[in-house]
Design brief:
It is a single chain. The protein is of the alpha/beta class and about 260 residues long. It has one domain: Divalent-metal-dependent TIM barrel enzymes (TIM Barrel). It has nine helices and eight strands. It is globular, with a radius of gyration of 17 Å.
C-alpha cells in the first residue's frame, strides 16, 4: 500500500505560512495540515480569498492540503464553538475535506456530561454545517480531555451515528491512553479518517521524531494497513521552534524509512 506523508503547520508557528509550505515541499512532503492556531491562519481573520490564495500556492508547490485542524485549547466555550463553525467553512475554502477538532479538558466526575454536551453541539450545529459544506469532522482523542481514548471516541460515534463524523487517530495519544494500540486501531477501523504520526516515550506525552521513542511503529503501520487506512500519515511535532525545517526534514526521512520497510 502506498502511503502519503504530511506535516502539521503547528510546528512552524513562528514562520509565515507561505514559507512553511515552501520548506515542506522542498523537503519532499506530499501534503500539509493547516492548523488554525498558526498566527497566519486564525479562523477570525481568514477570508475565502486568503484561503484560496494559500491553496493555490500549495498546489503550485505540489502539496495537497490534506486536512485542516482547529483545537482551540484554552479558548472559552462560546468562542471555541463559533470558531469551529468558521473552521468548517474555511476547510471548504481550502479545498480540503477533513477538519480535525478535539474536546476540552475533562472535569473530574463530569466527563459523561461533557461528552453528551459535545454530542449535542455536534448534532445540532457542527455536523449539519459540515454536511452542507461536504466536510468530514475527525475528532481527535487526547490525554486529559473528555474525549480521552478509543472508549470515549466510540461512545461519541455510537451516540451520533453520523456519516460525517470520524476519528483523527493520533497514534502517540492512543499509545498513552489505550491498553493496546493495535487493538484500538482494529476497533476504530474504517472510522479512522486521518492519522497524526509521531513517536513517544512510554508514559510521557511528548511528541518525538518517529524512531526516537518507545512505540512499536512497524506494528502500528501494519495495524493501520489491516484497517484499510489509505490517508495521510501527518507528522505532529510542535515544540520545534528552534529549527522547524531541520526537525521536519529528519521526521520525513524517518517516516519514509518506516513506511518502506
Amino acid at each position: 500500500m502506498a502511503h502519503k506523508i504530511g506535516f502539521r503547520t503547528a510546528g512552524f508557528h513562528q514562520i509565515p505560512l507561505e514559507q512553511c509550505l515552501i520548506a515542506l515541499a522542498e523537503i519532499g512532503y506530499d501534503g500539509v495540515e493547516i492548523c488554525l492556531e498558526h498566527p497566519d491562519s486564525r479562523p477570525e481573520s481568514l477570508t475565502p480569498t486568503r484561503c484560496e490564495s494559500i491553496a493555490k500556492r500549495a498546489a503550485e508547490l505540489g502539496l495537497d492540503i490534506a486536512s485542516v485542524s482547529y483545537h482551540a485549547d484554552g479558548e472559552d466555550e462560546e468562542a471555541r464553538a463559533r470558531n469551529q463553525l468558521r473552521a468548517i467553512d474555511i476547510t471548504a475554502h481550502f479545498g480540503a475535506d477533513i477538519l480535525i477538532i478535539n474536546a476540552q479538558r475533562s472535569i473530574e466526575g463530569q466527563e459523561r456530561d461533557q461528552l453528551d454536551a459535545f454530542g449535542d453541539l455536534l448534532a445540532d450545529a457542527l455536523l449539519p454545517r459540515a454536511e452542507a459544506a461536504g466536510i468530514s469532522l475527525a475528532c481527535e482523542p487526547e490525554p486529559g480531555m473528555f474525549v480521552d481514548g478509543s472508549a470515549e471516541m466510540l461512545y461519541l460515534l455510537e451516540l451520533l451515528h453520523h456519516p460525517r463524523l470520524g476519528v483523527n487517530l493520533d497514534i502517540g495519544h492512543a499509545f498513552l491512553t489505550d491498553d493496546s494500540l493495535p487493538e484500538a486501531i482494529a476497533v476504530l477501523d474504517r472510522r479512522i479518517l486521518h492519522v497524526h504520526f509521531e513517536d513517544m516515550p512510554a508514559g510521557v506525552h511528548q511528541h518525538l521524531v518517529p524512531g526516537d521513542g518507545d512505540m512499536n511503529l512497524p506494528e502500528v503501520i501494519a495495524a493501520l494497513d489491516c484497517a484499510g487506512f489509505a490517508g495521510y500519515y501527518t507528522i505532529d511535532l510542535f515544540n520545534i521552534a528552534d529549527a522547524p525545517v531541520d526537525w521536519a526534514r529528519r521526521a520525513c526521512a524517518a517516516t519514509k524509512r518506516l513506511l518502506q520497510t
